[in-house]
Structure formats: structure tokens, C-alpha cells
Amino acid sequence: MNIKVVSWNVRSLQKASNQANILNYLSQFLSSSSIILLQEHHLKTAALEELTSKTTFLIYSTPHLLTLISPSLYSQLQQPPTSLSSLHDRLLTTYLNLNDGTSLEVGNLYAPVKQELREPFFSNFRFAHRPCHLSLLAGDFNDCPNIKVDRKNQSNPITHWSKLEGNFPVQMIDTIRHRHPSRTLFTRPQLDKKGGTVRSWSRIDHILLSTRHKSTLRDAHIRFDAPGSDHRPVVAVITLEQAVSTARLPSTNSLIHRISPLLFRNKAFADEFRHYYETSITPQTAHLPSNIGWEVKKKLIVDFAQRSAR
Fold first, then answer.
1. Distance (Å, whole) CA 179 – CA 291
2. Buried b (16+ CB within 10 A) or exposed e, 101-130
3. How far apart are CA 241 and CA 189, in angstroms?
């Protein structure tokens, strides 16, 4: 199953015409399994309730953020998602457990614009990571990993990315740079005061993915067709079969016959196994050629299962 993750600073949904245009634009994601992460919506409680009545997305919110779950994705969940707001409502983390056993944690982030506020914000950044979850962190970071390539025509640009990165609970990749390592790409054109000419560019909107799940990334790109905002949406597509396949035992392996099949129906064992695979087996075999690595993995998997069965 493919899941489409869209992050976009909409720069306010208060104006009726702008809200209508943005909702119409987002409707293209309703029929697919999608997670939409919006920043700077500027809606009060009553307006949020009205917005909820206008769309079939499942909506979670803070004063800065909206996280939207498409009906298609919601129908594939074991139970309703849970969400957690932190960092003065500038981080909204949503946890999803799918029917196929995949667990996702999706952080929606809106970092302070002013660098004197952004530095302590990144220094105090905490992402409530749960073991065995595929991790996504996306939003308007108001910062970038590399000012030499992610900013253009800006005087004295400053980055505090290293402070943020140092507080990630797991290693993460920049999905855009992972897919387009050498392309010049920006998400925010800065217009002059007259509003006619772009005077500077920056790539401050990002989707990050846990490094151990980078094989799930199928696509990442920046959209240029979005209305109503001076930010451009960032899109990443992940294939979840790749995430959960590593938690399944190779049914054709003759070694499996040594283990009772009842063991694999035990949820506690399944959870423990997934954690063991991600934290022990993967690091031990990541450097090996694929054919050798698979044989080593099979042995480690069976050894673990036999120990658990005793």
C-alpha cells in the first residue's frame, strides 16, 4: 500500500475564498491513502468546527497546525489515531496503527520564524518516538540543512539545523534530498514589497523519514500548482509493504519447521520481534551483500524465535 504524505504551509484558511480554493486543491488526495500536514491555518475553534463539516478528512489540530487523515487511510486503521500536542502547540504528533501491523508516527511541525526563537526551540525539541514505528517529521521548519544550496539571494543566512538534528530520537533522511541530491529546489519564493518580483528563495518546508525505513520511500517532490499560499507543498510517497515485510518470517525457509506456528500468532511476540529486528538484526546485517545478508538474517530470526519459544 502506498501512502502519500503532503506538507504545506497554507498561510491562513481564514479568508473564505482562500479556504475554498485550498480545500478544493486538497480534495485530490481524498481518494488515496493520504496524510495532509498543514501549518499556519489561523482558524479559531468555531471556524475549525465549520471546516470539519466541509470535508471528509479526519482532522486533528492545534492553534498552528492541522493534520488531516483521508477516509481511505482511516478505513485501514486498527483503531482511531491518537495525537499529542507539544512544544507550545508547534508540534502535533499523530500515531496510526494499520491493519497490516504497520505503526506510523507522524510529526507536524511549525518552527518559529525569528531565529532568536528558533534556536532555543530546536535546542528543546523533543519528538515522542515510540519503538517499532515508522517515523515521519514534516512541516515548515523555517530552516534548512544546508544554507549553501537551500537558500538563494539571502544576506547572512543562519541555520540551527544541527541543534534540531541532534535531538532527533532516530536518524532521519531528508526525503527531497534523498530523491534529488543535486537539484536546486525551493519551497518558498520571497517576493519584494511590491509583490511582483522574487527577491530570494529558500527550502524551509521538509518531510523527514526515519533512516531505517528509507527503502519505503518511492517518491518525493515539490508541487508548483497550489493556490493561496506563497509556500509550495512537499509530497512524499511511501510503500508500507516494504516497512512491514521485515517483520515477517520467510515462509519458504526450512528452518521455520523447527518452530511452532502458534508462536507467530502471539501479539506480544510479534511486537518483541519487530523491535528486535529493527534494533539488532538490521544493524548487524546492513553492511553485508544482499544474498549473504539474507542468509544471516534467517539464522538470527530463527534463533530469536526459538529462544522466545522456550
1. 25
2. bbbbbbbbbbbbeeeeebbebbeebebeee
3. 36
- The total of other beta-carbon atoms located within 10 Å of residue 238's CB is 29
CB 140 within 8 A of CB 111: yes
Tell me the one-letter amino acid at 269: F
Q: Could you count the other beta carbons within 10 Å of the beta carbon of residue 208?
A: 27
Per CATH, domain 2-243 is 3.60.10.10: yes
**Cα(240)–Cα(2) distance, rounded to whole angstroms?**
6
**Helix runs in the chain, H state only:** 16-26, 45-54, 71-74, 115-123, 147-150, 161-165, 175-179, 240-245, 267-276, 282-285, 290-309
Sketch the domain layout of the chain as residue ranges. 2-243, 249-309
What is the chain's pLDDT, residue by residue, as a tens digit (310 residues)? 899 999 999 999 999 999 999 999 999 999 899 999 999 999 999 999 999 999 999 999 999 999 999 999 999 999 999 999 999 999 999 999 999 889 999 999 999 999 999 999 999 999 999 988 999 999 999 999 999 999 999 887 899 999 999 999 999 999 999 999 989 899 999 888 776 788 899 999 999 999 999 999 999 999 999 999 999 999 999 998 755 544 444 444 444 445 666 666 777 877 788 888 888 788 777 765 555 567 677 777 877 777 776 5
Q: Which among 32, 96, 90, 27 is positioned nearest to 61, based on CA atoms?
A: 90
The H-or-E segment that residue 236 falls in is strand 234-239
Whole-angstrom distance, CA of residue 60 vs CA of residue 92: 8
Q: Look up residue 94 and give its three cell numbers.
A: 499523530
Buried b or exposed e, range 39-77, using 16+ CB within 10 angstroms = bbbebeeeebeebeeeeebbebbbbbbbbbbbebbeeee
Cell 491555518 belongs to 41
